[in-house]
Amino acid sequence: MAKGLKIAVIGGGSSYTPEIVEGFIKHYEELPIRELWLVDIEQGKRKLDIVGELAKRMVVKSGLPIDVRLTLDRREAIDGADFVSTQMRVGLLEARKWDERIPNLHGIIGQETTGPGGMMKALRTIPVLLDICKDIEELAPNAWLLNFTNPAGMVTEAIARHSKVKSIGLCNAPIGLHKWLTKKYEVEAKRIYTEFVGLNHLHWVTRIEIEGEDKLTELLDKREEYSGKNVPATEWDPEFLRTLGGFPSYYLKYFYMQDAMLEDQLASLKANGTRAEVVKRVEDELFELYKDPDLQEKPKQLEQRGGAYYSEAAVNLMVSLRNDRRDIQTLNVANGRVLDFLPEDAAIEVNCVVTGQGPLPLPVTKVPEQAKGLIAAVKTYERLTIEAAITGNRGIALQAMAAHPLVPSVRVAKILLDEMLEKNKPYLPRFFK
Amino acid sequence: MAKGLKIAVIGGGSSYTPEIVEGFIKHYEELPIRELWLVDIEQGKRKLDIVGELAKRMVVKSGLPIDVRLTLDRREAIDGADFVSTQMRVGLLEARKWDERIPNLHGIIGQETTGPGGMMKALRTIPVLLDICKDIEELAPNAWLLNFTNPAGMVTEAIARHSKVKSIGLCNAPIGLHKWLTKKYEVEAKRIYTEFVGLNHLHWVTRIEIEGEDKLTELLDKREEYSGKNVPATEWDPEFLRTLGGFPSYYLKYFYMQDAMLEDQLASLKANGTRAEVVKRVEDELFELYKDPDLQEKPKQLEQRGGAYYSEAAVNLMVSLRNDRRDIQTLNVANGRVLDFLPEDAAIEVNCVVTGQGPLPLPVTKVPEQAKGLIAAVKTYERLTIEAAITGNRGIALQAMAAHPLVPSVRVAKILLDEMLEKNKPYLPRFFK
Amino acid sequence: MAKGLKIAVIGGGSSYTPEIVEGFIKHYEELPIRELWLVDIEQGKRKLDIVGELAKRMVVKSGLPIDVRLTLDRREAIDGADFVSTQMRVGLLEARKWDERIPNLHGIIGQETTGPGGMMKALRTIPVLLDICKDIEELAPNAWLLNFTNPAGMVTEAIARHSKVKSIGLCNAPIGLHKWLTKKYEVEAKRIYTEFVGLNHLHWVTRIEIEGEDKLTELLDKREEYSGKNVPATEWDPEFLRTLGGFPSYYLKYFYMQDAMLEDQLASLKANGTRAEVVKRVEDELFELYKDPDLQEKPKQLEQRGGAYYSEAAVNLMVSLRNDRRDIQTLNVANGRVLDFLPEDAAIEVNCVVTGQGPLPLPVTKVPEQAKGLIAAVKTYERLTIEAAITGNRGIALQAMAAHPLVPSVRVAKILLDEMLEKNKPYLPRFFK
Amino acid sequence: MAKGLKIAVIGGGSSYTPEIVEGFIKHYEELPIRELWLVDIEQGKRKLDIVGELAKRMVVKSGLPIDVRLTLDRREAIDGADFVSTQMRVGLLEARKWDERIPNLHGIIGQETTGPGGMMKALRTIPVLLDICKDIEELAPNAWLLNFTNPAGMVTEAIARHSKVKSIGLCNAPIGLHKWLTKKYEVEAKRIYTEFVGLNHLHWVTRIEIEGEDKLTELLDKREEYSGKNVPATEWDPEFLRTLGGFPSYYLKYFYMQDAMLEDQLASLKANGTRAEVVKRVEDELFELYKDPDLQEKPKQLEQRGGAYYSEAAVNLMVSLRNDRRDIQTLNVANGRVLDFLPEDAAIEVNCVVTGQGPLPLPVTKVPEQAKGLIAAVKTYERLTIEAAITGNRGIALQAMAAHPLVPSVRVAKILLDEMLEKNKPYLPRFFK
Ligand SMILES: [Mn+2]
Ligand SMILES: [Mn+2]
Ligand SMILES: [Mn+2]
Ligand SMILES: [Mn+2]
């Protein structure tokens, strides 16, 4: 321990990297990092160099003895690591563009994680992550893998079922909600108690208490909204919200407000192109900023990017794992016996006590009846998608697509699948053998 | 036993009655009926008289000592009965018309059992059935209640959870499939082995074997189709079918071929009105036939009506219950521990061994992964609907409607619900207190 | 099918063989056997020759075209078999003698299946059976293995968990109870309905109905007793029996009447030696009879031996499997979801519907609260014993012995284990590496 | 909150009271008590007065504004309470004497909680506790009931299943183990991580880690022993301990070392009488001390009494409940889905996160196979005992006694039960109607 930790960030050339570097600097005391390895692939070398140099400048400014290393050799970075974190995008924003655009062209929600396009993201990503896991099994068997790579729920489940790596899936939505509550009620974070039920990007918050007092009812009554920047605000039906039994994730609008969300997407597509294209422009601007040799800190503009608190979530988790802190965090882990209507090996997003030996999921005290059907339906889609990703079987992929609640028929499933597989050919060798 | 059985048929004025009377006559030896009570409500008296007189003529012709009684006094009919069978339609075909028409007007599948209109049918029917159950608890606590009243799955679950009556839900679809296989393969029924998984009007047949040999694969490969008369045939995607893992109930087309089915319905609505209106005309013709005082048997035309083998299913079940026959029948019963992703008290449609003490559900040996999500989603809708039926709570009803997989958004759910509740006002006193 | 079945009986030199041969002759029509292979080991050749020649004379007398083959080559017998049946005794009656005697010498129940001595039988037998299963996997992967080899519950569970062979465990106790009821109530077997709950040699009969009428209550009230010949009758406490909620297997006396049974055993040991020694004398006499070249049928004296109806149980099962008969038989199979307090892969003894694809366990409708603790305690002992058999780990064996409900302390467990392992050295190579 | 808490201690005349009063004084800041009510029954008035006056003197010395009230009116004490704590002994030490002595006289372990005598304690206590719960339901429905009354597991389960009171069962054994580890390893309590599996007085500690490092293995290897004062130390078999998979509660010696423990008890009985009689003498001496009007603090001698850390356990729990502290404590709560082999409503002793809304049980990460059988067997005994306590049914009581793992036969069960019921007649009106 004395010698400090080794951390490998896979996808280290991401525009998010300054955020996590800032987090590491801030929490150096509880998480004394000796080596921080930023890894990327050949194709991402340019971005890795830019953001990596910024990271080095940030560390220099901090005065901390953290050794920042940039590499294209994943195995070197993983070797002996204490924590491996992944934040990759197989196929880059170009692939995402089609995940969003193709469904839209057929009158279907285009969303890169929960929409049917998310299936392509899973098919591209899962095999790559499982390859990384093989390296971790071999080179850093005791490491914790923190997976931010979306679709984080499916990726986490694929890893849990198909590798021996100790892994945890992470999303910034739960911590984001906490931050929002903290500001709204002007209260310390630890005074707030929330209970999450569901899957990644498909959760309901079934308890919100401040100093033991229920706030959920008033939040639902007033139709208060916590929304990520990447999802437009739309009005909820008040009666529906009041009887739902949980504060819905903003991603649930894609299901509950399918028609309004689609309309909004189509208008936005016309005006600005896909979300991928918008993000691409933001990223390009960020990298322009990062190049500035005088910049020694995370630029304010990064906060526009959509991944707020991502760094805080990651650092919180590492600190608790390392220090056996036993605090409650909302994570993506194997269901175990928490939800009685899902298999034990299904990944869910749930409150966990983070011990030194890993997270222990807490029992849920309330599950909205309404939520069960949707959770089960999406989980069915997810499990079939994972199977398709591993086998490269088109029939299974079709079953998965047809099982997606936003896909109205097998006919449409077939069309979407065929077009999207074709577009993803370079990333899906298993489907084109 | 020596003195024979008492049977009460609630909704005895139904056009189906000659079918079941024929069944009773045919199986008199195994099911020696002393008294057959046909019960109906004031509103149905005319039909009861017509069909009741036909029933009497049929019995006279058979020469059997069965005493046929017509009554509007339900309690008299139930008192001391061995079997009570229900085949009712609260609100008659007029109410059904709106269950089908209102969704269609909003571009949604209109189907009286599995469509969102089925929710109204459940709301109208469940309280009436639970009232009947109170009479059975009091007057015939040992009777078996055979429930044919649709939506049979929800009605059966409501009874199982909210009364002490021993009840079983029945549908003619499973026996119909058997008959179809019998003819197709020219083989005795008992040589065929099938395994059903799912809910009423939402099942997959996961094993079809003839003398131990698998036939499911070829049936799926060839896209063979067994279809009830009330559902138009449409092409299945061959790849989808081949990888589905089960022979789908024809009701599943409403989910898997939502777009084609809707198109077909809208065309049909334009040409012939709703299915309710078509059925109404068929029924009127049947009753004209029934009036003929020379008619002493079930007229051939009844087979056009859509309830084929209904009588055979009912009589089969009564015979096995009475004689502890221990054969396998596909019935709607409480899940118990059969499907691990549903509550123990959820009604499912499953193979059962019918013993003298009631049906024992058999474990399922295969559950298509694809089916799980849809089963769970529909069951969530069903459970919320049952809760709404019992409480008269509009918020719960809205949750139910929004949970229906054929309803694309809360906005549409609200519209459908409001219009349909209004139209059903006379039958839904709990919602208009 | 036309060409008839091949059956391999492993342990074919057993004194029981004439019983099963008689069964095959009687049921030839439903079970047309072409080849009947009797297999034994070198050590059993003399007995195999004697009983094998008798089997041949029985078949000749029957006039049926069954080809009886005697062999010491197990693989030849298994190759392409439709059914494999095992009735072995690793270590012969000599080993059994010590299974009974050593516990008795320490004041503990000596019983070859349910007593702590049964653990040695399991340790000797499980590896041999798993070897046989490897041959079946290779040479007859579609064969059904019918396992009569005791301790049948543990052996069946070991096979189910550690091989791919389709196997079923069998005991004559359930069929024996049926026969007893048939005689007692002078009623056809199919009029009787019984429900069994528990494990092999540890079951409770929770429903006994004749033509739908409860007989369990009167049987318990009158302390009626069905007892195998190898267990002495002893008085049950009437209040205990009345409130127990099930008719106890006579093997349960070893637990419920531990003191009286032990006293009886010690007296009997003094007078006649162990049960093994008594059986040895009976067997020697049987083989003397079998030698008679004029004997062409099963001698009456075999019925004294203790395995009554064993043949009937085996033939019943084979007939139902071959003909998809779907009748109810009480068998040892994997628990699945039948008993919610045991693992899914635990072998239990339970009513099954025997289909052409194998037995399907029926749900239990009543489980005596009292029974649960004992079932769970014995199952824990069984699972640890299976683990010990496979690993040869003495620590696990000690855990198993200490978990046996008839062993009062770890100290005694250690003594029994050490003495018995030593005595079984030739049969337990895994423990003496 | 500002006005402070009201606490009712039922059985306030107990010799333990100074201990809990000391705790309240020490933790006043986190647990600001306004009123502390000590309640007892008429029979205990003398003791209540003595210990109550001491309590008052202790509070006066502390200078805190806590109002100590002594009363025989339970309802007055409960009315509006925030916490109710129970530490009663129905029948006093006199009844305990027979719980220990009668089994001993028949050669059976005499132990007031886990032995068969504990059944009498449960029969005497459960109805009284359920009466108290009725008062709490009426007068303090939001109160938390902290139950220390033994047998704490059964009492807690009875309350959870038969009342609506929010209750938690407590024992000082888990905290005692922690304290022992703290001293042994000279480390802060929060650096130690332990995981408990089992029931009250029947647990295994399956993980013991200090700063993330495993210590369980060495503790088992070295046969280190943490033992309560009331249980004599005896040697464990080293091989048994090493392969057991958990550090056993010292109460487990009654099962694992039944023979040695019985021998010890019989010797001790001869020398000093029962443990009850020894305790009686200790208590008499304590009350002599308490009478001293100059005594203003808990006397050192109380620590000899056996209930060490009892106060700390209680105060810890109250503090966490009141302040939503979310720390991990080992408590007796409903199983929920923690142990898959026990019913959801069975009380277990397990790690919980204590939130402001109550404890949430943590999943167990390891369950020794060996432990499962014994846990299930004891739980069966417990559930039957609870049913007997509520119904007063002798048949059920006999089933319970016969199910106790320390009772070797139904015959012995009957003898123990008859003698003990007779001796407890005054406290068991339900059994003598
Ligand atoms: Mn996310
Ligand atoms: Mn139907
Ligand atoms: Mn047997
Ligand atoms: Mn205790």
UniProtKB/TrEMBL annotation, chains A, B, C, D:
InterPro entries associated with the record: GlycHydrolase_4_CS, Glyco_hydro_4, Glyco_hydro_4_C, Lactate_DH/Glyco_Ohase_4_C, NAD(P)-bd_dom_sf
GO molecular function: 6-phospho-beta-glucosidase activity
Residue intervals of the Glycosyl hydrolase family 4 C-terminal domain: 196-407
Enzyme Commission identifier(s): 3.2.1.86
Needed co-factor(s): NAD(+)
Co-factor: note: Binds 1 NAD(+) per subunit.
Record keywords: Glycosidase, Hydrolase, Manganese, Metal-binding, NAD
UniProt cross-references to PROSITE patterns, sorted A to Z: GLYCOSYL_HYDROL_F4 (PS01324)
Domain of life: Bacteria
Record-stated family: Belongs to the glycosyl hydrolase 4 family.
Name of the protein in its database record: 6-phospho-beta-glucosidase
Species of origin: Cohnella suwonensis
Lineage, broadest ranks: Bacteria, Bacillati, Bacillota, Bacilli, Bacillales
